[in-house]
Design goal:
The chain has helices at 9-16, 20-28, 47-61, 66-74, 80-124, 151-155, 158-166, 182-187, 228-241; strands at residues 7-8, 35-36, 43-45, 131-135, 138-147, 171-179, 191-199, 208-211, 214-222, 244-246, 250-256, 268-277. The chain is an alpha+beta fold. Residues 88-122 form a coiled coil.
Length: 288
């Protein structure tokens, strides 16, 4: 490119692929200064000002702000390299934190997408069979609360969300509720429950509890919570017929719920009950 003594704002804009509006703003804040002719007041730029633009664009690529760029370029901070090194170290720290936050966001979105796919499959394939499976152990953030039968408020739980924020955590994946009494759950009676959810790393404070690490009977319930008793009864009948013992408590894993859609007909809940085999399966009886 032939070197010129001066460049108009249009030429500078075209050569550096920067808008005239941006160049006027840089001029206004003293980042790239123009020369003004008395007779027409046109902005004109020297070759040195032209060469400043790629430097600014590179700083912008690294995420530096305009006032930071101005300090770097002026070189009036005493020890120039010390000031630059400190600024770069601060920027690296900011970028590291941003990467952590971005990974958290990505993991949360993927987890939710997986739950939606699971719900779609359950509904499309009409998955309603009861089965026994080994559930991998996972540590979950938890909070114990009284339960008065309002399942919607238990799932979209304001107290638990405040607890998550207070303990400096970020959560992902499905909400789990541990009901201390399956009988009271079926009868709609008050009881103590445990709200649980997985924490994104790095985690904060708060209590953790182990979930899983055992065999559990599992069954999907599709539809509103008002009809979940029928699914429980079918699940419990299957457990007894197949020679399993169970405790008094149970878990519900909310695959899709009020967090996802207000249409309760599309809600999918996984019922989970700890079981232990106590006798051989009864042959000759119809399996549920």
């Amino acid at each position: 490119m032939p070197r010129k003594q001066q460049y108009s704002i249009g030429e500078l804009s075209q050569l550096c692929n920067v808008s005239k509006k941006a160049l006027r703003f840089y001029d206004k804040i003293g980042l790239i200064s123009s020369l003004r002719h008395d007779y027409n007041n046109y902005r004109m730029y020297t070759h040195d000002e032209l060469l400043l633009v790629p430097v600014l664009k590179y700083y912008k690529q690294m995420g530096f702000k305009l006032d930071e760029m101005r300090r770097f370029i002026s070189g009036r901070n005493g020890n120039v390299y010390s000031a630059l090194r400190a600024a770069f170290e601060q920027k690296l720290d900011e970028l590291h934190k941003a990467q952590i936050e971005l990974r958290r966001c990505e993991e949360s979105v993927r987890d939710w997408q997986d739950l939606i796919r699971e719900a779609e499959t359950v509904i499309a394939e009409n998955v309603h069979e009861v089965s026994v499976k080994y559930v991998e152990n996972v540590k979950l953030l938890f909070q114990e609360q009284p339960f008065d039968g309002d399942i919607k408020s238990a799932i979209i739980n304001l107290n638990f969300m405040n607890y998550v924020e207070k303990t400096n955590n970020a959560i992902t994946g499905p909400v789990y509720i541990h009901f201390s009494s399956m009988k009271d759950r079926l009868e709609g009676k008050a009881q103590t429950i445990r709200i649980m959810q997985r924490v994104l790393e790095p985690g904060g404070g708060g209590g953790r509890v182990d979930f899983g690490g055992c065999m559990m009977a599992s069954c999907y319930h599709v539809g509103p919570q008002e009809s979940i008793k029928e699914t429980y009864e079918r699940c419990l009948t299957w457990i007894r017929r197949h020679g399993y013992a169970m405790g008094e408590d149970c878990y519900e894993r909310y695959v899709t719920d009020y967090w996802t859609t207000s249409n309760s007909d599309c809600h999918v809940t996984e019922l989970m009950v700890k079981v232990v085999r106590i006798m051989p399966e009864r042959h000759g009886e119809e399996k549920a």
